[in-house]
Amino acid sequence: MDGVFEALGDPVRRQILEALADGEQPAGRVLDAVRSRAPISQPAVSQHLRVLREAGLVRVRAEGTRRLYAVDPEGLAAARTWLGRFVDPLAPFAQPLDALETELARGRRARRAEPGTNAAEAGAVDRGMRSGERGDRLA
Amino acid sequence: MDGVFEALGDPVRRQILEALADGEQPAGRVLDAVRSRAPISQPAVSQHLRVLREAGLVRVRAEGTRRLYAVDPEGLAAARTWLGRFVDPLAPFAQPLDALETELARGRRARRAEPGTNAAEAGAVDRGMRSGERGDRLA
DNA sequence: CCGGAATATAAGCAGCAACTTATAAAAGGA
DNA sequence: TCCTTTTATAAGTTGCTGCTTATATTCCGG
To answer: For residue range A74-117, what is the model confidence (pLDDT) as tens digits?
Structure first.
């Protein structure tokens, strides 16, 4: 449980989660997905998967010599719940709206078959795309 | 880096956010809050605040010689939205029970730890339970 | 059984991120 | 003006984290 946000803090691990967003996949496929963006070794991805597993963010299922990984919604929900505390204290009632947003994202995901849009969307969030006004850049 | 999740990955920064959960507070008060749990220098907290600010998770307002920090809901919402893609669309409606349910399910899962696939995960849960702190318990 | 495929672990190394102390900057009060 | 308070920045050190290569483990087909 300790380690959920630590695990989410790594961009490669978030990418792995995105690769698993469409459903259960063997480690090899996850490896390929990550490699489609940057060169990385098989052990590196295996280690990332371990971190995610120990954080409760993914679950594994052995099938033959393959390891099928899938997102563990519980772990994600835990992180989400923690974040929920900081959302406007006046409005825990914004929840239904939140659910709608999620529903829309899900519909999009189901309707489509290409993983490209997915990554792009998440990447935007990753890079902190928000309404400007904060141009306080400092290296 | 300007990553939201990178910023959230540090336990001290999450603690700072918790200290700001009750509303705007001057940097000095944040410093005291963090110090109430572990010894840390003033510059260290100042640097953490900068990371949070650059990630869009907090905003600052100068008042005299004081700097008043507050949570920026937009940044948190971005993270929450990203996480939302992996969560059951109906889950947000169960929000109040979320944490408890997660806890229970996790305990169950750890108890029936299957050798090979789940051993490491169970160990991680054990380690996670040590904290006992209200806010950090989750993360 | 044996070779190969899929995955995990071991061991070691490099870079960075978070800490420290020292100092600067800015504002308010005597 | 000078001192104090409050916060930020500079500079340097170090432990941890994520990477690599090499090897072990497990399973399946021939």
So the answer is: 999 999 999 998 876 554 444 444 444 444 444 334 333 333 22
Token couple for B104 = 């229970």
Q: pLDDT tens-digit profile of B27-68?
A: 999 999 999 999 999 999 999 999 999 999 999 999 999 999
Domain B4-76: CATH architecture, name and number where available: Orthogonal Bundle (1.10)
Radius of gyration of chain A, Cα coordinates, nearest whole angstrom: 16
Q: Which nucleotides of D are covered by protein (CB under 7 A)?
A: 5-11, 17-22, 26-28
Closest approach of A103 to chain B, Cα-based (Å): 6
Q: Does residue B133 belong to the interface with chain A, where contact is any CB pair within 8 Å?
A: no
Chain B contact for A54 (CB, 8 A cutoff): yes
8-state DSSP, B39? -
CATH topology assigned to domain A4-126: Arc Repressor Mutant, subunit A (1.10.10)
Measured between CB atoms, does A63 come within 8 Å of chain B? no
Q: Distance (Å) from CA B82 to C1' D13?
A: 36
Delimit the CATH 1.10.10.10 region(s) of chain B: 4-76
- Can you say how many angstroms the Cα of residue A137 is from the centroid of all Cα atoms in its chain? 26
Tell me, what DSSP letter sits at residue B91?
A: G
Global pTM reads 0.74
